[in-house]
Amino acid sequence: xxxxxxxxxxxxxxxxxxxxxxxxxxxxxxxxxxxxxxxxxxxxxxxxxxxxxxxxxxxxxxxxxxxxxxxxxxxxxxxxxxxxxxxxxxxxxxxxxxxxxxxxxxxxxxxxxxxxxxxxxxxxxxxxxxxxxxxxxxxxxxxxxxxxxxxxxxxxxxxxxxxxxxxxxxxxxxxxxxxxxxxxxxxxxxxxxxxxxxxxxxxxxxxxxxxxxxxxxxxxxxxxxxxxxxxxxxxxxxxxxxxxxxxxxxxxxxxxxxxxxxxxxxxxxxxxxxxxxxxxxxxxxxxxxxxxxxxxxxxxxxxxxxxxxxxxxxxxxxxxxxxxxxxxxxxxxxxxxxxxxxxxxxxxxxxxxxxxxxxxxxxxxxxxxxxxxxxxxxxxxxxxxxxxxxxxxxxxxxxxxxxxxxxxxxxxxxxxxxxxxxxxxxxxxxxxxxxxxxxxxxxxxxxxxxxxxxxxxxxxxxxxxxxxxxxxxxxxxxxxxxxxxxxxxxxxxxxxxxxxxxxxxxxxxxxxxxxxxxxxxxxxxxxxxxxxxxxxxxxxxxxxxxxxxxxxxxxxxxxxxxxxxxxxxxxxxxxxxxxxxxxxxxxxxxxxxxxxxxxxxxxxxxxxxxxxxxxxxxxxxxxxxxxxxxxx
Length: 632
Description:
Layout: H1 9-22, E1 29-31, H2 35-41, H3 48-61, E2 65-67, H4 68-78, H5 82-92, E3 97-101, E4 112-116, H6 117-131, H7 149-153, H8 158-167, H9 184-200, H10 210-214, H11 218-234, H12 255-259, H13 263-277, H14 295-298, H15 302-311, H16 335-348, H17 357-362, H18 365-378, H19 400-411, H20 429-437, H21 457-474, H22 485-489, H23 493-515, H24 523-536, H25 555-564, H26 581-597, H27 606-610, H28 614-631
Antiparallel strand pairs: 1-2, 3-4
Helix pairs in contact: 1-2, 8-9, 8-11, 9-26, 13-15, 13-18, 15-16, 20-21, 23-28, 24-25, 24-28, 25-26, 25-28
């Protein structure tokens, strides 16, 4: 394995990003034919003759595939070239980057873990504002953004749990957070709760452990916080939650086309909409990975000025006073001074979050994206179009089941991230990655990868979907009767969900089989284990199946948690007999959070227990069985 010791964490991140653009399947390999493009993406373009010579040597000595470690080795071999020196110089010149000496289990010895001071500053200010009135956080909030307060503050898990609830309300039952007289054990529980809950809302936390957070490892803390904050900022940037977004429809575009856009793409569309209304030039360029180039919008602050002026309240809505944006700062010649004047106007709207004047001028993409999202959330300045021929009935919100599946996929780190379940699976690339997660091998040579041609592009996607169904039937042995590739390609809800459920079910059972030394597990085995564990612990609860109506009270789940970790359930907080619907939901919220608190990575929602949804109920008991078996 090639060592990354010669590279900083920042350099490795740059190289991984370049490598990942060609590694569409996420299987850790690229083809030799893609090497030239990957090196170019890493700001290391080779002369034609050298590229051909390098590829020829690799083709003769290998199997046509290049792993990331091999790519690192290739880069090291080229680093004496002038162009490589230029690349390293470019990285080293980056301002605002702090290198922290140290290693993690995933890193090579001597690797430098870097983090952005600007991001730390922005996140601290956002957390201070979000939690300023929370009595449970007074021991750490407000934090000083100029110091490393943040990295110590997250160590007891309380701030992380609170921020998860701030981004996605009611994810964590407050009763399950340990808040007083903390011990190493109760802190561990809080961190388990935070990590498993973050996973449940779609954060990728595979390489983050409770110890990493307890130690306050900066690059991991900031990485997790960014995921949590971004999920919260993007929550309402979808048409089913904000029908006024339909105002962004372009001529000749269907509602379905608009609904397929990612939150980033909708934000860029929104910014362009207001810039066009302000008489400014629209920004239509996207980078090669189809993410909006926000730097091109905001680097000189002029576009921001016009955007603020467009969205500021005009006083024409009842109860909302007008806010006049002072545009005189546009005359400032210095970019930083102009940005500062612009941010002073943003502050009048209550939207001076995430960026400093320097962040605007440097074009920090992450922080500027957050700034724009926050501005949109507070002042979208859009109106639901009237008298348009729009089929409003076609705007369906995401169901609980769909959200659970989407969050599960994203927590596994699929690339690209799934924003809209059906449109984002229409080329089957995410499905292929899920197959590999359940140990079903994928022949990536048979997979068509983007960018797809304008003519015949959908045919390429359909070929992928046909192959995905073939793998499900022949390799995974799934029941896919009546399901064809066309159903996945067209986003047939019922049939697509049938495949996704079987993928999630197999993933869950595989974890149990790994713990049990390869022993096959089915529903009957899980039910038997649950009842045996409950009986051994002296509990009265039992279940006959995952459809048992007793599950609606959540008592079998709560008793099982207490059997696995005795004394963990505070029964005085619960109603155990003659429950109404509200009391059932109250128990279920506590049960789901407690399952996560003791270390079970549960994706189901409280409503799934109350309504006794057999599929989701099965995953809850299976995850608890996995936790229980680990303790044996």
